[in-house]
Design a protein that fits this description.
single chain, 360 residues, alpha/beta, Ubiquitin-like (UB roll), Rossmann fold, 10-stranded mixed β-sheet, 3-stranded mixed β-sheet, 7 helices, 13 strands
Length: 360
């Protein structure tokens, strides 16, 4: 019996040979076929499959974590700034360096008539912290002083206050019952300052009382200022203006349609009815005819100049003259250069100091 010389089926070499002869074409073998455990990892590392390494993820996404971190930093900075601001505020409020003293209050500018009252009002803030003083409130309190028209208060480092006031400008005396005050162009009343050297020479306004509101006095004072402007403006015939308002002793503004003045120009002061317009023209008629009227009528007490060339003399002061009175004086129109003729007389009368009405 013939002996089979081929390799046994258990021989690994034989198995490799069989595989090389075309077995790969028919059957699909695994990549590690024919390898033993000893030559698997060290002999063929290129055939190993890479293992996935698991990535550990945080509890929050990366973008959310960045926002949280920025927010935490913001609040930390905000808290630090708040603490610094609180310490600064506490220092500014409680430090003695910012306490107002009497000698740290400065009144700038000239205020001879209101200086004492302004300083008295400002001394109320002595020993207060300069940052806790309301400048707007102090301004309002100062402007309540009759002589103060406008006021301003500013802070100066570290504890100084500078006060600046603008005083009112009086334009006339005003009779209020049993005493006389000063009044400005807007109708504000002012006491005559005590202990202050003044040389006011104003007419005395009649026809208003102390209880009238400012809204009533203001339009009447506009009429008075218009009267003064017209009388001091001249008639245009002379280059030098003559201040005829210096001839006025009293001005009655009780009737807005009939301004009555007590004027000097004749032998004695005379009451004139000037109406509410053409003040200068009517006053020039009076100056041009006063001597003739005194010769014809004797002593003059009142002259009504509201009716053009018809002049009513010595009529009732409180009753308007009738349309055709029995005695009417016909006045001559003022000459073209009446202002130059009366300039010397007006300057002479203005040089005499008018006695002031003082408080009783």
């Amino acid at each position: 019996m013939a002996r089979n010389q081929g390799p046994t089926s258990d021989d690994p070499t034989y198995l490799r040979g069989q595989a090389s002869r075309g077995s790969y074409a028919d059957d699909s073998l695994p990549l590690d076929a024919g390898l033993t455990e000893e030559d698997g990892e060290d002999d063929q590392p290129q055939f190993r499959r890479a293992k996935r390494v698991p990535v550990r993820r945080g509890a929050l996404p990366r973008k959310t974590a960045s926002r949280v971190r920025n927010l935490v930093v913001f609040f930390i900075v905000l808290a630090a700034l708040g603490a610094a601001a609180y310490e600064t505020y506490s220092f500014g409020v409680h430090s003695w360096r910012f306490r107002v003293r009497r000698d740290s209050i400065e009144l700038a500018g000239e205020a001879p008539n209101s200086r004492a009252l302004v300083l008295q009002k400002m001394y109320e803030v002595v020993d207060k912290n300069i940052f806790q003083i309301s400048l707007a409130q102090e301004k309002r309190e100062l402007e309540k002083i009759p002589w103060v028209e406008t006021a301003s208060v500013i802070r100066l480092w570290p504890n100084h206050l500078r006060v600046m006031v603008k005083e009112r400008t009086p334009v006339a005396f005003i009779a209020l019952g049993d005493h006389v005050d000063l009044i400005d162009a807007e109708g504000s009343l002012m006491d005559i300052p005590q202990g202050v050297q003044t040389d006011y020479s104003f007419p005395v306004i009649q026809g208003m009382n102390e209880n009238e509101p400012l809204s009533t006095r203001a339009p009447r004072m506009k009429t008075y200022m218009r009267l003064v402007r017209e009388l001091d403006g001249g008639d245009g015939s002379t280059q030098d203006k003559v201040q005829y308002s210096r001839n006025l002793d009293e001005v009655d503004l009780s009737d807005p349609d009939d301004v009555k003045v007590v004027a000097r120009g004749g032998s004695a002061p005379i009451l004139l009815h000037l109406g509410n317009e053409d003040f200068l023209q009517r006053f020039m008629v009076f100056l041009s005819n006063v001597q003739k009227l005194e010769q014809d009528q004797g002593k003059l007490e009142s002259v009504d100049l509201r009716y053009g060339r018809k002049v009513f003399v010595n009529k009732d002061l409180h009753v308007a003259p009738p349309p055709t009175p029995p005695q009417v004086a016909k006045a001559e129109p003022p000459p073209p250069h009446a202002a130059s003729q009366h300039a010397a007389q007006a300057k002479k009368s203005s040089s005499v100091h008018r006695p002031q009405k003082k408080r009783k």
